[in-house]
Design a protein that fits this description.
By secondary structure, the chain is an alpha/beta fold. It has helices spanning about 5-10, 50, 60-70, 85-95, 110-125, 145-150, 180-190, 215-230, 280-285, 305-320, 320-340, 375-385, 405-425; strands at about 25-30, 35, 40-45, 100-105, 135-140, 170, 195-200, 205, 210-215, 230-235, 260-265, 275-280, 350-355, 355-360, 385-390, 395-400. The longest helix is centred in the C-terminal third of the chain and has 21 residues, at about 320-340.
């Protein structure tokens, strides 16, 4: 019995209609930008396997670090205990993050990193004795699939089934779709309706909501509005972190800095689940008390897992190498080439790039949105030709591992018009 058949009999896959999906594609090995199927064929991973494999698959430096750590310490309760990998990772990250970041809180995935950030912000005001209990978020935001993360995500097919259970959030129009003046007008209306604790944003690129992009100066102005009113700012850098925007963190494109940051995905180079929420010293200090009831009540069994921290430290080793930084710059440059090549295509609109991310909207009669079938058909077309792509409905994007070879990335760009001709005619 094949691996795909065995899978189909036992496993429920994410974001998948299991009745019609058919058997999952068995992958038995990965190396660099390539995935190897059970039948021996090879796939070029043009989306970094859900945006996590920044250094490519099975990078030996990270694999070796995990193996070594497994022989030393695999797990220890993190309430009241610590270990060298966690301390080293926290120290190293704080030197690379914006200077306002002072404390590191570990959890296990992007959604929970956001949950922690929201809890920090909400409870911070309680610790200060102020009734601030409203959150501002952006239309089309996607912050994860746990209930708090869904609450601050734009209302969509992802959240529809659970909307009666989500807490109320004030949404403003996306700066990727409307002008700064319109966004600021939305913010002014919100301020009049209640005390705001925090604003949460995906800085510069709203990922799963459609790869909506907006410039740093727009975010600077939104943050200035928050600063004038004492509103905390949370950056969800789960996707944008680790050079996706061209810099190590999207926050480094700005002069203003957030109060809280959420990191995951590329943190371990895609090897192991791990996430981090960082905050300013002021936020941390607000929780300090002789009263134990004033602590931050959040934790996970695998908080700061030593294997995950070892993977993250090894990933940072690679990011500190000039070779990796050169590869990032190379991807940015070749994505710009692709953008120029595709600029006049009649079936492409809103062609855009931020750092290593290239995205475009496909003109189709099927409308827009995640369930637009054109994305499924384009993904299938590429798959049949040995390339893994996963469009967001009619939004097609290329977000490769930094180890992809230049000609491989150029090949993906050249295939896009062919795919559109085959699928949208």
């Amino acid at each position: 019995m094949s691996l795909g058949t065995r899978d189909h009999a036992t496993i429920w896959h994410p974001f998948t209609q299991m009745l019609t999906a058919g058997e999952a594609i068995p992958i038995v090995r990965g190396s660099g930008a390539h995935l190897y199927r059970e039948d021996g064929s090879v796939l070029l991973d043009a989306v970094s396997s859900w945006w996590v494999t920044v250094h490519g698959h099975s990078h030996p430096h990270i694999a070796d670090a995990i193996g070594k750590q497994a022989h030393v310490l695999e797990q220890v309760i993190f309430a009241g205990f610590t270990h060298p990998q966690a301390v080293q990772l926290a120290e190293r990250l704080l030197t690379k993050l914006p200077s306002d970041m002072a404390r590191v809180f570990f959890s296990d995935n992007g959604s929970t990193a956001v949950e922690v950030g929201l809890k920090m912000a909400w409870q911070y005001w309680q610790m200060k004795g102020e009734e601030r209990n409203r959150i501002i978020a952006l239309d089309h935001a996607y912050h994860g699939d746990t209930f708090g993360a869904m609450s601050v995500s734009g209302r969509s097919i992802f959240t529809k089934a659970f909307e009666p259970l989500l807490f109320e959030v004030d949404f403003v129009r996306s700066p990727g779709e409307v002008s700064l003046e319109e966004v600021l007008a939305d913010l002014e209306k919100i301020e009049a309706r209640g005390d705001v604790a925090a604003m949460i944003v995906e800085p510069l690129v709203q990922g799963a909501g459609g790869m909506l992009m907006y410039p740093p100066e727009v975010l600077e102005a939104m943050m200035a509005w928050c600063r004038e009113r004492g509103i905390l700012v949370i950056f969800d850098e789960v996707m944008t972190g680790f050079y996706r925007t061209g810099k190590l963190f999207a926050a480094l494109h700005l002069d203003a800095q957030p109060d809280i940051m959420c990191l995951s995905k590329g943190l371990t180079g895609g090897f192991l689940p791990l996430s981090i929420t960082t905050c300013t010293q002021e936020i941390f200090d607000a929780f300090l008390s002789e009263d134990r009831s004033r602590m931050l009540f959040h934790g996970h069994s695998f908080t700061a897992n030593p294997l995950g921290c070892a993977a993250a430290n090894a990933s940072l080793d690679l990011f500190e190498q000039q070779e990796t930084q050169d590869r990032v710059a190379q991807v940015v440059a070749i994505q710009a080439e692709g953008r120029a090549m595709l600029a006049e295509h009649p079936q492409i609109t809103n062609l855009r790039q931020q750092g290593t991310i290239l995205a475009m909207d496909i003109v189709t009669g099927g409308g827009t949105g995640y369930l637009n079938n054109v994305g499924k058909e384009i993904g299938k077309w590429f798959l049949e030709r040995g390339v893994l792509m996963r469009p967001l409905g009619n939004v097609l994007y290329v977000m490769p591992p930094y180890t992809i070879e230049p000609e491989e990335l150029r090949k993906v760009h050249r295939m896009i018009p062919e795919a559109l001709a085959a699928v949208t005619q």
